[in-house]
Structures are given as C-alpha cells and as structure tokens.
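Supplementary Methods, section 5.1.

A reviewer requested that the exact input to the structure prediction be made available. We therefore reproduce it here, unchanged from the version used in the analyses.
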Amino acid sequence: MASRRASRSSGRTGAGRGRRRRDPLAIVAQRPIAVSPGVRALRARRGTLLRYRIAVKNTSTAPYRFGKRCAAYVEQLAGSVPRAYVLNCRPAGTIEPGRSLLFEVALPVATATRLGSSELTFQLAPRTFEAPIAQAPVWVAR
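The structure derived from this sequence is encoded token-by-token as follows.
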C-alpha cells in the first residue's frame, strides 16, 4: 500500500518534533508550507496519499543493525483511525552511532478528513517500553 524505502542521512531532519533532545525519530518534510508566521507544515490533500519521510536515528554509541524481523509502526492523522504497518528495514543495513536512516512513507488521507490544521503522529515499535514517537503539523486541503 505504501512505499517504505530506506536511504542514508547525516542526521539532519525537518519539520517533526519529539520528546527529548536526542530523539531517535523525526518526521522530515520534503516541501513544508508556511501555515502561519513561524509554523511550517506538511501539506495533504483529501483522497490522496500524504508522502513524508521518517528519520530513524541511532542515539547509542554502538552500531545498530535491524534484526530478522523489522519493527512495526503506527501512523495516524488526527481524527482518523491509527494504521499499523511493518517498517521495510531489510535493505537498511547498519546505522552507525549518531547517524540516521530515512524511510519514505505514504499515508492515505480520507476524503472525509477535516480541512485545515491537523497533526501526523508516527510511533515506532508501539508495544515496546517508551516507544519512540514523532509528530508534525499537517495542513489538509481539498
């Protein structure tokens, strides 16, 4: 249903915000739009796919390699039903300490989604203790 392609990143991220300074997740806006002074958001259209990237950062001091099973994640646009998927981590390889890996993601935006300001939430490995979460503002248009 959605593309989850991995690519390397230096750790620089975009419009997302998280809980701690060394957040392991960030939502990266490919082309954010200004919705008010100082606020930039992802742009979504009803009945289409919201395409964005999630940066998964290795915040440890040791290289990280995904296991045999890729992690599950949940994504949700405010007011919609959360959707669960499995991250396509097989081609990802190893994430070196302090480095990030970008995954391309696409979320269906329902035709009944409320217009205007909304929020995207992405949670990696939702059934783990203190699962990493990232959020970003979204502007929904017709």
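The first strand starts at residue 6 and ends at 9. These observations are discussed further in the main text.
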